[in-house]
Design goal:
162 residues; mainly alpha
Amino acid sequence: MANKTDIATGVAVLGCSFLGAYGIKTTGSSASATDSLGATAFPTAIIVLLFICGCLLIFQGMKKSDVTDYWPSRPVLCRTLANIVLFLLYAGLVMVLGEWFVQTDVEMLQQNMGFGIGTFIYLMAAFYLNGRRRLWEMLLVAVLVPASIILLFNKMFQIALP
């Protein structure tokens, strides 16, 4: 009997890879004269790996298996879907905040603030959604993670985040 869960997950992963490939194609970024790889080299490699994983999941799901289909219980499925929606909202929030802070006159606020504040809000909401209730722990991680990532990108990679 085919495992419908693996097949459905594989199709979803393939869909994500196609959306990513479309996004990469529409950006139109190419390598400059001084770069051997363009800005899309790493995302393209990730999309290829995602496509391969999706195909493997579909093939694995088509194999005969003695295991019955496993669909998660309603609370687990709802929490998973809520996490996906929360992540999509986070991505949009970072972009909106980033654009808003870029338009301010204060130069200090123009870089990294959208990412920092958006990530803080996302982590606090994700912790709460997934059952963490220790406020000090949530605050500590929600402050240190964005600060560390901002520091890493600004100092080591010299890239400003939105």
